Amino acid sequence: MEYLQDEEDLKMALLMSLQSAPSEAKRSKPPEDAEESPEARGRRLRREVMAAAAERRMATSRSGGWGNPVPRSMQWPCRRLAFLLLWSPPEGNTDRKVVGETRQVDVGELCQEDANRLFSMLFGGAVSKSILLQWTNQGIRFSSDHETCMGLVQHKGGPCGILAPIQAFVLKYLLFFPTELDKVSPSILQPEHEQRRFPNDRTLVLSMVEILFLCGNKKRAAVATLSIFTHHADDELAGEQKNEAVSEALEDLSVESASDLKKYLRVSTHDSPTDAYNHLMAELPVFQSRMGAVLFLISALLSRGLDAIQADRDDPSLPLVTSPFGHASQEIVNLLICGEAVANVFDGRMDLGGGMSLKGIPGGVEVGFLTLLESLNYCKVGQFLKRPRWPIWVVGSESHYTVLFALDAAAQAENELEEREAKIRAAFDAQDQSGGGGFIGVDGFHQVLRDAAVALPPEKVSSLCAAGFIVWNEFWQALLDLDQSNGGLKDSSGKMGKKQFDVFHFNGIAKSVPNGGAPVAGGEVPLQRPRLSKLHVSVPPKWTQEEFMTDIATTAAPSSDAAAPPPPHPAEPAQHAPLVDCIRTRWPRATCSWDGDSPSIV
Fold it and tell me: Which PROSITE patterns match (predicted)?
C-alpha cells in the first residue's frame, strides 16, 4: 500500500513539474526560531501538498470543471518552434520540492574492495589523466541558451554516453504523459516576450529516478554523492548559493584512484521512488557540478550491482570508459536505456553453440537507440531499440551520442498500404498448396477475396481465374489497380502509402555559432550553445506502382532492342548527412530535408 502511495506522489510530482503553480494561499508556519524535527517537517509539507490539492478541487467545483487542458509551451529553434503539451488535469498543483513523507537517508562509504572494483571497472588499470579530467569535469545541466534550454549541454568529449540517455528520458517527460500517449500538438502561437525557462529541475530528477530504478530492476536505486556536500542535505542554502558552495568545495578535489573514490564517495540506497526523488532533489547541485556525470554513472552501476554489471558483459575485463579517447562504451548506454550493461544491440541472446552466447537487449524499452555503425554494416540494431515505446532515440556515431525525437508517436506507425499488402499476402499464402510457388486454385482465390475483403470487378475475377490457377504477381497487379475503398492498394492521393513526418535532432555538445555575442574590437564574440535541428522525413513504401510496372515491363521485354520502360516519377529533392544514414536504419529508403546547416552527430 505504501508503494502505491509512493507512485501517486511521483505522479503528482510529474504534474507539478509540467504545469505552472497558481499563487498559493498564505499558511501558518512555525516560528523561525523553533527547531523542527525531520519527521515534523515531512508531515507539515505533506499537509500543505494535500491542502493545495483540496484548494484546486474546490476551485474546480466552483468553476464547473477544468475546461480545456492548461498548455505549457517551450521555445526552440527552427523559427522558434513551440510545443503545447496536453495532459489530464491534476488533483493538486503545488510547487513544493519534497514529495511524500521525508525519511532519514542512510549514507555510507564504499569499502576499499568495492572502491577498487568500481574504479577498475570504470577506467581499467592504466587510465590517462586527460580521460579522468574529461569525466570529472562534466555536470548535468540544462543549456543557458533560451533556444536550447530543453537540452543538457556538454562541454567536453566522453560523458555524452551519460548525458544523451538522460536527455532522452527528459524529452519523454516533456513531450509525453502516460495518460496522453499520442497527444502532442505543435504550435507557433507563443509570442517571443513570453519565453520562459523550461524545463525545470523536477523533470531532470524524475528522469534520473526512472533510470536508476530501471538499473535496479525497478526495486531499488543507489545515489552516489560526495562526502564534502553532506552538510547541505537540509537544503539550508538557496539555489545559487548552494551552487556556489558546491563549486568552491570542488576546487581542490580530484579523483585519480580507487582511494579517492573511497575517500570522497558516499552512497545511499532507496527502495522507494519518493525517497530517491527527494534525495536527488536535495543533492541536485552536486549532480549539476563538474562531478555530476561520473556520479550519476556510479549511481547507475551501484543500482544494478557490481556483480550483476560484470555478469551482463561479454568481456568484463575491459573498462567501461574506453581508451584512448575516453568514450562511453555501448555497455554504459545500454545500462541507462534498458537497465542491463550488455554490450550488444540486437534483441535477446545470440547462441554461439557450445554453451556460449552473446547478450543483447532483453526486452522493450522506453527510449531507443540508432547507430551510424549499422549503416556501415558493423552491427544490427534489434527491434526493441528501433521501436521503443516513445519516438525518442539515442543516436550513436563513431565518437559521440546525440538524440533524435519526434513530437508524435504516429511517427512509429506502420505504412498503411504495406500493412494492407501484408494482410492480403498472408491470406494468399494460407491458400497456397504449391509449397511456396506463389499460385493458388480458383476456390482458394475466392476464399482470399472473402478473407481480405477485396471487391474485384467480376470481369477481373474471371480474367484471373481463366487459367484455372492464380499467380501472386498477377493478383498483386490487379490490387494496385483497385482503389483502397474496394480493398485494393491504389492510393487516390497519389502518395502510394508514402509517409511524411518531422523529427528533431539535439546535439548537446557546445559549439560556436555566429551572431551570438555583442560586437567587440576585432569582431564578434561567438556564442557557445548546443544545436537543435528540424528534419522533414519522407518514407516511401517498400514498393511503388511505378517500380512494379517497371519490373513487369522488363520481364516482358528482355531484348536490348525493346523499348525502355517509362521512368518512375522524379524523386523529391533530398539532402544527405550521416544522420540520414542513421534514420534509414529505422525507416529504410527515407529521404530527409532541412533548412540551414546540416545536423551533426559529432
Answer: UIM
